[in-house]
């Protein structure tokens, strides 16, 4: 009897090249802090800036002069005032309607409660008489 054999071929398996991982590393531009003894260079002249005009003032004889705020402040204040008046004017009728309906509803509940209480008072003495 013959023993069976298997011929296994020899295969060379190569290694797989895996590239090294790469990434974009975040960075920042370093801040440069000026030295504490920083001075103007020789011969430098300061830049002349135009000063803003003083705010206008309202002169009323019995009162001291009153400074008038800038136009931005006046526009903001006027817009806020107009919005408040408009909101109050538009919502007042709605609130009045709600108030009337709520009072009517509550008065109906109070009247019903009074009637039920009166019925209980009337029914309790009659039940004691029997």
Key terms:
130 residues; mainly alpha; two-stranded antiparallel ribbon; 1 helix; 2 strands; flat
Helix content: 40-55%
Number of strands: 2
Number of helical stretches of at least 4 residues: 1
- The coarse overall form would be flat
Textual characterization of the structure:
By secondary structure, the chain is mainly α. The protein is built from 1 helix and 2 strands. It has one helix at residues 71-129, and strands spanning 57-58, 66-67. A hairpin with a 7-residue loop joins strand 1 (57-58) and strand 2 (66-67). The mean pLDDT is 87.
Task: Put the structure in a nutshell.
This protein has 130 residues and is mainly alpha-helical. The protein has one helix and two strands; from the N terminus they run ββα. The longest helix has 59 residues, at 71-129.
Map the helices and strands.
Layout: E1 57-58, E2 66-67, H1 71-129
Antiparallel strand pairs: 1-2
């Amino acid at each position: 009897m013959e023993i069976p054999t298997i011929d296994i071929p020899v295969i060379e398996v190569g290694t797989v090249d895996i590239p090294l991982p790469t990434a974009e590393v975040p960075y920042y531009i370093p801040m440069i802090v000026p030295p504490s003894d920083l001075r103007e260079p020789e011969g430098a002249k300061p830049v002349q800036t135009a000063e803003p005009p003083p705010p206008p003032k309202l002169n009323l004889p019995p009162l001291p002069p009153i400074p008038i705020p800038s136009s931005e402040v006046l526009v903001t204040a006027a817009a806020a005032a107009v919005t408040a008046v408009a909101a109050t004017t538009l919502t007042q009728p709605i609130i009045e309607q709600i108030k009337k309906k709520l009072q009517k509803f509550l008065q109906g509940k109070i009247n019903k409660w009074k009637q039920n209480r009166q019925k209980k008072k009337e029914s309790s003495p009659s039940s004691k008489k029997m």
